[in-house]
Amino acid sequence: MTQVIFTIFGASGDLAKRKLYPSLFRLYKSGVLSEHFAVIGTARRPWTKAYFEGVVLDAISDLTTSKTEAEKFASHFYYQSHDVQDAGHYVTLKNLQDDLCATYETGHNKVFFLAMAPEFFGTIASHLKSENIVDGLGFERLIIEKPFGTSLETAKALNQALSETFNEDQIFRIDHYLGKEMIQNIFAVRFANVLFEHVWNREFIDNIQITFAESIGVEDRGGYYDKSGALKDMVQNHILQVLSILAMDKPASFSSSDVLPEKIKVLENLCIPDETTIAKNFIRGQYQAGRINQQDFPAYIDEPSVDPASKTETFASGVFFIETDRFKDVPFFFRTGKRLTEKGTRINIVFKNNANIFKQDIQQNILTIYIQPTEGFSLLVNGKEVGKSFAVEPVKLDFRHDAAALGNSPEAYEKLMYDVLNGDATNFSHWQEVKASWTLIDKIVSTWQADKAPLYPYQAGSMGPVESFDLLEKYGTSWVWQPDHWYRERGLLQ
Length: 494
Ligand SMILES: NC(=O)C1=CN([C@@H]2O[C@H](COP(=O)(O)OP(=O)(O)OC[C@H]3O[C@@H](n4cnc5c(N)ncnc54)[C@H](OP(=O)(O)O)[C@@H]3O)[C@@H](O)[C@H]2O)C=CC1
Ligand SMILES: O=C1O[C@H](COP(=O)(O)O)[C@@H](O)[C@H](O)[C@H]1O
Description:
Dihydrodipicolinate Reductase, domain 2, 17 helices, 17 strands, about 20% strand
């Protein structure tokens, strides 16, 4: 049972309502939070405590049938109307914290969650220090959300501002993909199976393919997305984080002090291509009108809050190389985009073929990790076809979590909040990782911005521009995962 006061900046916002309150409630239900905790929500809206409790009750309504339980939980929530730029409000905030610390015996432990635009992070951190809200009396941890900067330069400035108040080991940079069950499972697959551990290198792996496909468009986030694009929205953070777990060397132990340096090593050893290579190896696309599941969708430029002349990419694909002994020259292909055929997040590890003694081609072994919507893994192995003659055929060993197990599995934010309470930074992005990833992403952005690579159109409902398929062909391979219609069009699926 943890003693703590949470202060949530941006308590009236979307993230707080959709993710944070439900996650805190799940931690409460599981007993991680019990009597000795309080939550202070702040935002400019002039809400009362009663109104705030109503917002929280609404946010958790799907998670319990017990009114008493929900109300008891919500009674721990307090609200302070507060403009983060106004220094005077931090004095009131400190008084409220001190009162709640005494009432709930929270032992001076504090978690600050900045669920608002990053432009405010520096101001908040500096006031937390100047008003002695961060006072060193208990544990004090800061949780921040992406985007962590919009370039290396802005990320550095942001980090500098935060580090005036918090040390690196107090800053928890959320990447919600690191809270996903099957992303965390990569550690188990790689390091708990002798079968894979010793072949997880350039001698045995031909290439790795990371697909983060979404069928949704930009929804109501056109304003944010149009300034960001797929590369900054998904690749700089989620895809490079996942790549670092796939490519890292074995850590001495499964703890943040051993895992993070290994992940950092991967990201710091990413090859930074020159402009010509970027133009060849990194594809950007933008969706045009199209159909998904019998429904018509408009082109990206016709979405609300998007500039009708926008050149923002809604699809990014490319190939990374890492200069480590383990993976030198092994291509790590990736693709991610909006309004693709279907939602599908998966990783394919394609192994090399061994010397073939048979009079037929042999299928490469492929390990597929299904992140979402289904969770599990499959392994493509070769076996003998049943019959008198000798023919080799691929067989798929398939494991998916069952629905009951999934129903009980904690959500990404719940797991990550739990880690923060335990001071465990394994599943968070370290500053060195953020810095290394921006170094590479900046280079791609500047090449694209100099119009050195075309912005390819693709139809909503497809798997992105054909150039993304051509890229793999240039490397003598192809995307392992194709949507069902791809197989159907080739007569491979009824
Ligand atoms: N929503 C999501 O799923 C995700 C969000 N994020 C990131 O999380 C952060 C929050 O996102 P989201 O919740 O969607 O944003 P919202 O716009 O929904 O919420 C912003 C919050 O900030 C408050 N706020 C704005 N200005 C001030 C101010 N000057 N002083 C005090 N409070 C202020 C708003 O309240 P009020 O107007 O009452 O002041 C509101 O509570 C962003 O950085 C976003 O990029 C990241 C990943 C996913
Ligand atoms: O961070 C983001 O992630 C979501 C996709 O997350 P998922 O958990 O649904 O796979 C993406 O839609 C959004 O644009 C991006 O900001």
